[in-house]
Amino acid sequence: MNKPIHVMSEIGPLKTVLLKRPGKEVENLTPAIMERLLFDDIPHLPVIQKEHDAFAKTLEDNGVEVLYLEKLSAEAIDAGNIKEEFIDRMLAESNIESEAVMSALKDHLMKFETQEMVDTIMAGVRKKDIAIPSNDLTTASNGEDYPFYMDPMPNLYFTRDPAASLGNGVTVNHMTYEARNRESMFIETIMKHHPRFADQGVEIWRDRNHTSHIEGGDELVLNDKVLALGISQRTSAKAIEKLAHELFDRHSNFERILAIKIPNVRAMMHLDTVFTMVDYDKFTIHPGIQKNGGEVDTYILEQGEESGKLKITHRKDLQEVLREALGVEKLDLIPCGGGDAIAAPREQWNDGSNTLAIAPGVVVTYDRNYVSNELLRQHGIKVIEIASSELSRGRGGPRCMSMPLVREDIKR
Ligand SMILES: NC(=O)NCCC[C@H](N)C(=O)O
């Protein structure tokens, strides 16, 4: 039987991917709240949807089955018959103090059929949409100045981050910022109740009930034995250690984790904003993470000799660590923006390093990163460009916008 989750590499031919079509949530932004909701600008909805549809079509034209988070979520809720429970759990994490608001929101959401309910939760609920009798102080003093009872989730189209496929399992992530933390409840529900995934042997390597945080942009599957995990603004060393114990103790196929430390800054929030695999022996890299002629702090985690203990080795020669881990003779690190003082940070900001490999040596990238794209081609990579004027406003690229569920195995 085909496994619903099967990802043993970053580059094996992509068979099934999970996307989220940007909806009303990306328009429910104002300058006052966009920074807290992790956006730098407000996308133009019809254009971002057009660009996203073109991204999905590019994948389908290349033989990839595209599934949508919003649709699977509604199907899972119906299959599990858990509409009320789902609403309760979502409301419990939506920062609602007033009981009157809580109960009015619940009534409001229960009235929708499931798909509309999911779309409404994702888009956010405006105060003007519900009349609430304000007979208590918490409700009455809940000022008019803030427009939402439930915040929108504009980052949902970055399906990469709330969960990650590792081998035949997933991590369902406790995320760093409140602005994104409810997002992983959708994928948790899908894994638990959708007939395509529930009771199909999908390992949950780590669930969202943790205090330490990890995001999928920091989780790279280099091959069936080695993972690269970013220690970053969004993924803590503690979470990586805990995940390593799970993977090793539960006898997953992974034997080694390369924990790669990157600067704790917004522009490089995840490892995949500065480093992605594009072929058996080729990576994109943003020179901004390298010190002293190429050094990057890297910690190799392996099962220790004593059970329950990890063996940790500190290295700085990332290139050599990768070469050894992949068993290749030479490694080609392709610098974002050609390493130019302007083009490199400009294109990295617009996710020039954030490529989505759909087969070995074949990647999808944003058209605006023309310096990086040209360089990738010079290094023998087939580059498929997609339009990106609105998609890029959320600070994520093709890898961030996709959660691979199934990739074909590669042999080398
Ligand atoms: N893997 C990624 O780098 N995802 C991009 C996430 C962008 C989103 N606005 C965020 O700040 O979380």
UniProtKB/TrEMBL annotation:
Q: In which pathway does it act?
A: Amino-acid degradation; L-arginine degradation via ADI pathway; carbamoyl phosphate from L-arginine: step 1/2
Record's keyword terms, sorted? Arginine metabolism, Cytoplasm, Hydrolase
Name the residues annotated as catalytic in the UniProt entry. Answer: 400
Please name the top-level EC class of this enzyme: hydrolase
SUPFAM superfamilies per record: Pentein
State the EC number(s): 3.5.3.6
**Molecular functions per Gene Ontology:** arginine deiminase activity
Entries under InterPro entries matching the protein? Arg_deiminase
Catalytic function, reaction form: L-arginine + H2O = L-citrulline + NH4(+)
Its annotated compartments are: Cytoplasm
* UniProt-listed HAMAP family: Arg_deiminase (MF_00242)
Concerning PANTHER family, the annotation shows:
ARGININE DEIMINASE
Family per record:
Belongs to the arginine deiminase family.
Q: What is this protein called?
A: Arginine deiminase
Q: Which organism is it from?
A: Carnobacterium antarcticum
